[in-house]
Amino acid sequence: MRSDIHDILQKYWGYTRFRPLQEEIIRSVLSGKDTLALMPTGGGKSITFQVPALALEGMAIIISPLIALMVDQVENLQQRNIEAAAIHSGLTQREIELILHRCIYKKDIKLLYVSPERLQTQSFREKLAKMSISFVAVDEAHCISQWGYDFRPPYLQIASIRQYFPDIPILAVTATATPRVIDDIIDKLELKSPQIFKQSFYRENLIYNVIETEDKIGKILKLLKEFKGTSIIYVRNRKKTVTIAKHLQSLGFSAIYYHAGLSADEREKRQKAWINNRYRIMVATNAFGMGIDKPDVRLVIHLDIPDSIESYFQEAGRAGRDLKLSYAFLLYHPTDIEDFRNNIKKNFPTLETIKQAYKLLCQYYQLNIGEGENEIFQFYINELLKDQDISAVDFYNSILILEKAGYLALSEGIKTKSRLHFLIDKNTLYKFQLEHPEWNEFIKNLTRTYSNLFSEYTNISEDNIALKTKMSINEVQNSLLALKEQGILDYLPSAGENTITFLKACIDEADIILPNMIYEDRKKIATSNAEALISYILNQTKCRSQILLEYFGEESLIRCGRCDVCVARNEVNLSKLEMDKIINLIKPLLRDKPMNESEILEQFSIMDEIKIMKVISWLIETDKIIRLPDMRLRWKR
Ligand code: ADP
Description:
Helices cover 45% and strands 15% of the residues. Residues 15, 18-19, 22, 39, 41-47, 293 line the site of adenosine-5'-diphosphate.
């Protein structure tokens, strides 16, 4: 061992002590044992593999599911003068070779980040055998489980690298800890009598609340006024981040928005501005938050139903890292629940539809049975679906399933969109159109199709523009590049080419086999996960914190006493004193002028609403107040 782990923590990170369980996990890895570490987001998982990587001779392999995560961590380590590198598809072959050379011959790298896909390639495996490896860490280890919310089939292959180094330990870390997922991780990674460390997921200072409302915006305003301090508002789609942020700004709130459609630069700028308190409120899609560690977030509001309990717990959990009292609110409208169920269904088109999609692909690329293996084709969904009776959503979801089942591979370009932004204002553009009539039609088409091009980078589809302008996709791309050269607009083509690769030769669609693990089981799991979230939302009897903890396999006997459910239960028997206090507040209001319930609630804290409603019902029952024909309430004289 090179040096004591406390010295390493102090020297490279400047931290004086380990957080709960970090030291135990590290010591377990150092003693050569397979280890499973379950810690909620923000618990400090990275340190548990970074410190032993420095303490041990040789190099640690870190398996990570996302390029963004890897790059982020490597940069972070390099800033601390730690030699780390990541091998991913964003690098050139030359860059990859240089890194591998360092790993094998120079041996200066202490942590090498790779994707599970990379691990599967023969060439990498041959190199791996020549490296001196201290241990393997599997980050986001829940990705190995089809029971989890983020299943990645390549994770299943990780255990097979053990044959190269049968004696080195594996450390699996994750923030998901449902019992099924834990069993699955141990099983699929073939962990040998692992040491399991689990940090409690209980967050004493975070109060979870769910509110059913017809007026989400009104509720947000109330929450923001009531709970001062930094806030995050999560919404489902990108457009909404913009509209909500603008609405809040127009009301004088300091708000900014964030979504994955913004350029990397722009995202970083916005994130920094919010972290440095230049803005109070971040309105974002779930793309926001990974790796963000702002301690003083006081309020997290979900305006739409999140993906799963796991993601909800993570997103809400960004509040109160500093251990001070903080609040999470999930706002929903009853129709949201149905929409949510439908969305889950859409991810799993029927087998018939999937087969139809596959057949269409083979026909479009003119592949006969037995042809096409490993062939790569340009892929433009609008062009492909012209005159077909399958919706783009069904088609896209079908090919995602075919991809998971190993028939096809989609390029990054399909999953990331190109972006466009006008660099000149409307008048200048108009002048340009007059002076260059040859561009008039094309530009008109752009501005008609996309409304936000003047104000921000907007996702576009060359395919869609081609369809509208009756140009070829190539012509569209060249035209956009030409306008870019003239300084009219900025055009950021998508991350890669839009291609689809047939991994297997074309077969008769009737012969398509979708393993249960990819389709049937996944569908059942997705449905049952969704139902778990729905019952969390609709629940009116059990403490919110208790439900979440139980979901993560933790027995919890203490009610938080402060969530909406606990408050409602506590207030079943309001004391006479409290009753009188509230009545004394309501009485003058309703004597002066009739009001409806929401106008009355406006006058009180959101946390008191349940109490107030109880008192109002009592006042109606006992005939102290009456309801007017227009539904408003008036104090009876
Ligand atoms: P996780 O991956 O569990 O969400 P991270 O590894 O990103 O958490 O750590 C969260 C934050 O806590 C990071 O900013 C990290 O530097 C910090 N941190 C981790 N361990 C310690 C420690 N022992 N002392 C102080 N800060 C720590």
